[in-house]
Each structure stands twice: as C-alpha cells, then as structure tokens.
Amino acid sequence: MVVIGGGHNGLTAAAYLARGGAKVVVLERRPFVGGACITEELWPGFRINTYAYLAGMLSGKVIEELDLAQFGYRTIPHDPEGFLPFPDGRSITLWADTARTQKEIARYSTRDADAYPRYLEYWADILRLLEPLLGGPPPSLQELAEQFRGPENEGLLRDLVLRSADDLLSEWFESEELKAALGFSACVGAFTSPRRPGTAYVLAHNSVTELGGRAGAWGFAVGGMGRTTDALARAAQRFGAEIRTGMGVRSLLIQGGRVTGVETEDGRRVEARAVASAVDVKRTLLELAPAGSVSDEVIRQLRSFKTHATTLKFNAALRRLPRFRAAPEVPGPHHQASIMIGPSLDHLDRAYRMAGTGRLSNPPFAEILFQSAADPTVAPPGHHTITCSVKYAPRELVGTSWSDYRDTAAELVLTTLEEYAPDVRELVEHWQVVTPEDLETTLGMTGGSCFHGDLTPDQMFSLRPFPGASGYRLPVAGLYLCGSSAHPGGGVTGVPGRNAAQVILADLREGVGRAAP
Ligand SMILES: Cc1cc2nc3c(=O)[nH]c(=O)nc-3n(C[C@H](O)[C@H](O)[C@H](O)COP(=O)(O)OP(=O)(O)OC[C@H]3O[C@@H](n4cnc5c(N)ncnc54)[C@H](O)[C@@H]3O)c2cc1C
After folding, report:
1. Structural domain of residue 258, as residue ranges?
2. Whose CA is nearest to atom 36 of ligand 1?
3. Is the shortest distance between the CB of 276 and ligand 1 below 6 Å?
4. Domain-embedded: residue 377
C-alpha cells in the first residue's frame, strides 16, 4: 500500500502498517522526510527547528510500541515550564513545583496563589477524562457525553466545550497577569480569541502532554524535533517500509469508486490496494482526488472545514543568550522555559482581531524558545538558537504579500523582543522567517494551517474532519486519512498515524477497503 507524505504521521502509519505485515511505500514530495517536524542545519553548527519546536504531545504508546528510544528519541522536560515577562520588567515563572509557582503568583495575588493547587486538581480531572478520548479512536458526541456523566462531570464538560478560556480562568483567578500566563495556549492551533466559546477546549487539548513521566509537561527533543521523525523513519524502515523521497503525488487513481493507486508528479503510476494520505484532507480530496470522486455534500463539508490557524516563525542564530529586563541572569533558568510574549488576554484578543483584518498584530503574540540553553548539541559552543513562533499570522495580508512583508515581519519580531530583552538584536548572527505562505507552498498545508485544520471543538472527535469521515476511512473505498486532519488533530502526537494504521490493517485482513458512508 501507499502512504502519501512522510511527515511524522505518515511515518508512524507506515511503521505500524509494516509491523502488521503490509507492504508499504511512503511517497514524500520533499527531498527528506519529517514534514513540519524537522530540524535543519541552516547555518554551520546551528540546528534549527524550522517549524515545530516543542515536544510533549507524542503518544507514549507510539514511543514504546515503536521503541523510539532505540532509534535515538530523547527529551528534556522544561523546568521552569513557562516564563511570561511583562514590558515593565515584572514577570511570572511557572515551575514544575507547585509551591514554587505559588510563590510567584503571590506577588500578584495571594488569593490566586491559594487557588492554584485546586485549579491544578480541577485541570487534572479534565485531562484524566480527555486523555483517553484523544489517544483512542474518535468518540461520537454521545460517547463523549457519557464520559462526563453526573452533575460534577457535566460541569467539566460544559467548561471544556462551551466556555471561553477567559471565562474559565476568571472563575478561578483575579490576576490578569496569571490569566495571561495560564491562558496563553488557548489560541495555539485555533484561529480564535481566548474570549470566544470553545477556547477552554483548546487550552485543555494543548495540555494533554507528557514528558519525563510528568503529565502536562512540555520540553525539547534532544538534538531537535527532527530527531523524532528520524526515529520514526528508522522504525518504519526496520519493520520493512520503503521510503521514497523527492517523489510527490500528483493525483489519486480511482476506478469505480475505489482507489487503485497514485500517479506521481513525474508521471509514474504506483498501484496499491489501499492508499493512506498524511496530507491534509482538503488537499487530499479537493486536489489529489480527480474531480467527481466525492459527492457535492462532501465538498461542502470540506470547504467548511476551518484551516485558518497558521503561524509565522522567526528562527535565528545568536552569539549568546539575550538579557531579559525581567530576569537579568544570563544564562538563567527562564532561558530553558517556553517564553510567552503576550502580557494579557486582552493582548491576545487584539492580536486575533488584527489578524482577522489581514494584518499581523503589532506588538505580536509569540512564543520563544532557546533550545540551545537546555540542549547544547544544537549550536556551536557558546552560541545559541532562538525560535520565535508568532501566532495569529493571517494567511493573506491586506495590501501586500508575504514575500514583500518578510523583512518587515522580521523587524517587527526583533523590535518586540527588544522591548523585553534589549540586547537581542545585536546578538543575531543569522535569521530566517517562515511565513504562512511558506507553510502552504513548502509543506503543502492548505491555508498554511499548522495543524491541518483548527483544533476547535466543532471539528474534533467524530466531527473531524467531518461527520461520517472521522474513522480514518474517506468516502472513496480504499482511501484513508492518517495525518493531522484526522482525530485527534495536529501536534506531533503520532496518534492519527497509529489509529489509521489499525483501521487499515483490519480492513486489509478482511480483504476490503471500506469507504466512509
Ligand atoms: C510552524 C509550526 C509550529 C508548530 N509547532 C508545534 C510544536 O511546537 N509542537 C507540536 O507538537 N506541534 C507543532 N506544530 C504542529 C505539528 O508540527 C503538525 O501538526 C505535525 O507535524 C503534522 O504532522 P503530519 O504528519 O500530520 O503532517 P505534515 O508534517 O504536514 O506532513 C505532511 C507531509 O506530506 C508531504 N506532502 C505534501 N503534499 C504531498 C504530495 N502531493 N505528495 C507527497 N508528499 C506530500 C509534505 O512534504 C509533508 O512532509 C507546529 C506546526 C507548524 C507548521
């Protein structure tokens, strides 16, 4: 069988399929595998996470079952977990240790510091219910509701799917500073404001992580995110999968409503009983499938699948680590944390509104990582890497194009960073900007959508990518979806690849490739 796309999900699917006895070939358009999960030596000695930069979502089952440690996958959990500097020189640091974080919070509100451990328990309850739903096959809405039976759990379900992150956090805390620190990831993977219903879910979704045995932890993949996909590729090959790079798929071959293989961009035909696409669902069914392969109703569903959540990356090589006004120590523990540039939920809301009008907000809302501060293997001795992910970058800019705006965007990022770390500009040795347009043209992500579709509750679980197609089978017999457009969505999780492989193997055993109804 054929897997289209050698991103981490295509590789995961290939590994499980080959392990299950299928003859698999992965066709990847780029000269190398990894998709959005790669590390490139952009400048001698500097290994940069071009796109994804944070580890923590990769399923423990995938790590264990494919024995990724054997293939070099290692991680370093963050501690501190988060650092939110404010322009006036104050900051909040979120530590792995609750008591230590409470001390930080008490500088803003003693009431909030007292509430924090209870909030963590409440959050742990939500995540305990959510985690198995995100790891396994997509639950129907009814099954989802059944997990949250009883008045107490119903309250959790309401919080999860109906409320905004701001409402939820405001019920617990009074400090705007703390709400900004805890609500930061409510907008990651979703083009929406933390004030809009559904963002409490996004916050929860981005908290289903585990690293170093600690639930909710994020961190670094040693050597860079690309080590994850290197390990997956090696596992897939060890089980017998073949990986062909530099081989893009131009179209799916479909006869009598059943897939029979693919045609590559250089005109070769590869026959297959089944095809699993790790490319996003819109590109798969609207571009790779010949016209007329799916019904008008499916096309309507696809067009309404939201692919707006994109991002802009500013990646650079630094002479040394910068000095933050809010934490002058160099190096300091904060350099190893996820650093949030977004001092209030208001700031995030404004950035969202600006993006809605086709503009990158000024100042932007961004997340910064210095991987080299925790993992010196990614930079020459004494030097450092910085990746800055600017959220709410609109795919289309009003009055200009991303290629014309690239340098202005870099300038905007640097000017913003200078507000917090005044010496940063003079430390930059090399830099690169990756725009939403680059994500679309280089990786093939429709709309530059980092997660192959927004992670809002209206397109999760059995609704992802649309009702009737959530079980990894697409509405063409023998055609499957194994990338981030499938349940449970984007992020370097490996779950869509693993789950899809299980469905495909079961169908192949029965000798049929069933279509979604
Ligand atoms: C800028 C950015 C930052 C992110 N940050 C994080 C993060 O810190 N942590 C995290 O967990 N997640 C992060 N994500 C999300 C995560 O990286 C993605 O959800 C995930 O990597 C997607 O994996 P995938 O295998 O489903 O798809 P992709 O990685 O998109 O892989 C699809 C593959 O298909 C190939 N392809 C496309 N068209 C064709 C074709 N016609 N023929 C053959 N091959 C084709 C592409 O080249 C690509 O290799 C980020 C994403 C982006 C873009």
Report:
1. 2-37+57-71+225-306+447-510
2. 5
3. no
4. no
